[in-house]
Amino acid sequence: MYNNFFKRFLDICIGVLALPFMIIVTVIIAPFIYFNDKGPIFYNALRLGKNGKPFKMYKFRSMKVNAPDIRNKDGSTYNGDDDPRVTKVGRFMRKTSIDEIPQLLNVLLGNMSLIGPRPDPLDDMEIYTDYQKKKLSVKPGITGYNQAYYRNSVEQNEKFEHDVFYANHISFILDAKIFFKTISTVLSHNSVYNDATSLSDEEMKKVERMRNNNG
């Protein structure tokens, strides 16, 4: 009952109430994003939705235009403290998770929920085990079990396992715990970045080249 009706009802109610806040934040943050490097305000990426159906996820752009894709050894996206791909305003948005606010539109459109596993890139479908694919049985979320309790402090396979745990135990109580824990985690800036040692030698060379170019 909760997953099939009440969860969606809460998503719509909170999404509508939060929409004016999203508009205000957009008006304030958009000039900073644009004038940082004269690039687009939003970053729209295809992600895996419920049952593996692709959808377009909205974010404020935190990286420089045409930044290269850099992956950790476990296949997850690199997110280092001194990542040269990230703009100055992008660093602030990532620390505060402001870059995720446009996903309220995804919630209202129905392809995301407020709480759920974070949506993965399309090519992650190729690396899921059959067990890990169970995470796709629920809608992805703006925040989730991993983001609330671990953020970027665990490796990708462990994140997938946590996502399956959430999908198997979804409930109003669990969502409430994740919601309030997320607020605490964001305010404390815990585990915002992953360590550069998670990069392969080849990916580390990409990072170093960008740092040298920026310098």
Describe this structure as you would to a colleague.
The chain is mainly alpha-helical and 215 residues long. The protein has one domain. The chain is 47% helix and 9% strand. The protein is built from seven helices and four strands. The chain has helices at 2-37, 88-96, 103-109, 145-149, 156-169, 172-188, 201-214; strands at 42-48, 54-60, 113-115, 141-143. The chain has a two-stranded antiparallel sheet. Strands 3-4 form a two-stranded parallel ribbon. Strand 1 and strand 2 (54-60) form a beta hairpin. Helix 1 (2-37) packs antiparallel against helix 3. The radius of gyration is 17 Å and the shape is globular. 28% of the residues are buried. The model has no long low-confidence stretch (mean pLDDT 87).
Keywords:
single chain, 215 residues, mainly alpha, two-stranded antiparallel ribbon, two-stranded parallel ribbon, 7 helices, 4 strands
Concise structural overview:
By secondary structure, the protein is mainly alpha-helical.
